[in-house]
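TL;DR need structure tokens for one chain.
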Amino acid sequence: MDKHFSNAQRAEVLTQALPYIKNYNGKVLVIKYGGNAMINQTLKEQVMEDIVLLHLIGVKVVLVHGGGPEISEMMSKLGKKPEFVDGLRVTDKETVDIVQMVLAGKINKSLVNYLEMKGGKAMGVSGMDGRLIEAKMKDQRLGYVGEITNINIQCVQDLLDNGYIPVISTVGCDDEGNVYNINGDTAAARIAGALNAERLIMMTDIAGILKDKDDPSTLIPEITIEQAQSLFEQGVIQGGMIPKVKCCIDAIGHGVKNVIIMDGRIPHSILMEILTDEGAGTMVKEK
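>> reply
TL;DR here they are.
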């Protein structure tokens, strides 16, 4: 907090946050984390601080993470060229080994370590642990890219019940022992639904849903599923935002109260969304 803040001003800020703290105490909040907010070290620390603060005031936070840029970087180091079809990574047997190593290993344990350093109590799991994410091959052209067939949420619930912040890497499995690369947004939506989460926050690298994609001032603060369908038809929601908004609608269909698409590059955007009137990004809700 700014050193020029008086103690009285600090107390006032905390008092204003009280209704929001009461509202979220004991509720489940799922955060999908990736992109630029994960690459920038300062932002990463701030996101971890936000999560630990929410955890300490009684919010049951679940962190679901991706790691596309780091997977591509590791592939390049190992002499493999990343390929994409319709925005999804082509994942052969060798690539899925790299995905598992980077997501379930390096990134997952790094985030757990950050949360512990900031005073949280975290536990890392992959979608293979407790068969959390069961999947099948989505498309032969994509190789081991998975389509989720089932979520076994008990291991995550057990961690929450024991006071941990579950940190989930999005790799899945099937009955034959195959490992699948799972889209992080899709996994977060299904996990949030299985937990009947109060809210799902999708951290991205744009402000939210914009009427004009090149003008951040045209941010749409709230949108219903019906209005979103209309914006799809008008071509307002386009490109990479299409699957993201479809994941929001999917999450609500699976029981999440509402979903926020927010700019993870803004410092402490999670706290702005949860503990202030102002909020951040676009809220997608049923009606």
